[in-house]
Structure formats: C-alpha cells, structure tokens
Amino acid sequence: MSGQKGEWVAMPGYEKKDGTHKDLIYPTTKEARKVINDAILHNKINSQVVGPIEITEETRPSSYAGTKAYGSLIINKSLALEIKVREGQYGDWVTMPSKKGETGRYYDLTYPITPQATEAIKKAKDMVLNKYKTIK
Predict the structure, then answer these.
(1) I want to staple 11 with a disulfide (CB 3.0 to 4.6 A). Which of 23, 94, 110, 131 is the partner?
(2) Mind listing the pLDDT tens digit for each residue in 4-13?
(3) Residue 34 in 3-state DSSP?
(4) What does the DSSP assignment read for 96-113?
(5) Quick one: which H or E segment has residue 82?
(6) In sequence order, what are the residues at sequence separation of 6 or more whose Cβ sits closer than 8 angstroms to the Cβ of residue 32?
C-alpha cells in the first residue's frame, strides 16, 4: 500500500460496522513490523527470525451467537492471529483468521507451511479449547 509516509504493508483484516479497520493478523512488536515490512517491501529475509515456533494463547468469552470465545495465537511473541472458538455440529472448534468470499464460502487467511508449524498450531488450538472450557 502507499500513503502519505510512503509504502507500507497492509495486514489482512476487515472493516467494522463503525467504519474502523480490524486487523486479523498483526505484529505485536515494532521489531516484528520491521521484519515483515523489510521482507515484503525490500525482499529482505532475516534468517535469524526463522527458528523454533513458540505459540502462546489468550482467550476471552464472547456473547455473540455461534462464537463462544475470541482469542489470539501469538507466534514467537511477534505475530498475533485473531481466532474464534465456534460452536459446530460436532462440538466446539477453533477457527483461524478467514474471509468470506463472493460465493459465501470462507477462506483461511493463514495456514502453516511446515509440519512443525502444523503441529504447533494444532497444540495451540487444543490449548485454546481447554482454556475456553475453564472460563465458560
């Protein structure tokens, strides 16, 4: 994206009913924002960033129909993914950030690309569901 202060990276999100923007994925530190901007705008990959994946979670209850709780998966204390605990036909489940397409189908905005990331996110989703059960 381009603005008054030059080019910048827009994170996936949506416009809320009040006209404000809500990011679904966002860096949690200034350093993480710089790494993302450098990687995307200047094709600079910081190899020190790639390493073991540590995921923590935050969970808070929701009063919205069908959504039991909101939360964040925080990856390596640098990048947050907004998630939801939803009620489904087969029980509660955790949704990753997604966007509704023109056909009404939802598409994930994020997904793991390595077996290690897949396993870490699966464990984090389980943590979120277990935490939800203790706060409901």
Answers:
(1) 23
(2) 777 878 888 8
(3) helix
(4) PSEEE-TTS-EEES----
(5) strand 79-88
(6) 78, 79
Residues in the chain: 136
Cα separation, 19 vs 44, in Å, equals 34
Which element (helix H / strand E) includes 77?
A: none
Q: What is the pLDDT of residues 41-73, one digit of tens each?
A: 888 766 555 556 677 777 888 888 889 998 888
* Cα separation, 101 vs 62, whole angstroms: 24
CATH number for the region 2-135 comes to: 3.30.1120.40
User: Phi and psi for 80 in degrees, rounded to 5?
Assistant: -110, 135
CA distance 111 to 113: 6
**Domain residue limits, the chain:** 2-135
pTM of the model: 0.71
Q: Which residues are CB-contacts of 127 (< 8 A; sequence separation ≥ 6)?
A: 57
CA 136 to chain centre: 22
